[in-house]
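Quick one: structure tokens for this chain, please?
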Amino acid sequence: MLQSESVIAVFGEDLEIREAVKKLEIAGFPLETLSVVGRKYRAGETIVGFYNIGNRMKFWGKRGALWGALWGLFLGGVSLTIPGVGPIMVLGYLTTIVVSAVEGAIMMGGLSALGAALYSVGVPRDSIIQYEQAVKADGFLVIVHGALEELKRASAILAHGNPSRLDLHDGLTTNLLRPNHVVSGTAPPMAL
């Protein structure tokens, strides 16, 4: 069953992603409730190769260490190219949803496979556009899926990593958790 509640943090650096995932794991969040999304490599960088054998993945390039380390943590991942966004990696919870979208099981008018996957777990369309823009600009999404009370705890953990954006999506609305960002939804900002 899909979780329609999630908290999404946008980070800009590889180290921030590793730290966020590590802190969530230490705090007891199961890896199967987490997702990481980002570009496979920075704009303009050339990649020599990528392979996956069993549970091992090797990726050559500046982000190879990041994706290799994260691939080993998560049970699933997918590498694909999203028109308008570019080549991305999706690890964790969203993987099977993105694959379903690519295979046509999820049809959402005008949305990419990533957008359709996010929409199917309760993220509003205007937020999806902003998340895809963040990924296109070499940002990363760290997503925690689960019950609202757990997401409040995850939000507090992710906030310590100083993300450029931090939103709580309860399936119906989006609550702004970081100031200075405009987000869709009708609910007032949520206090932590």
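Residues 78 and 150 are 26 Å apart (CA to CA).
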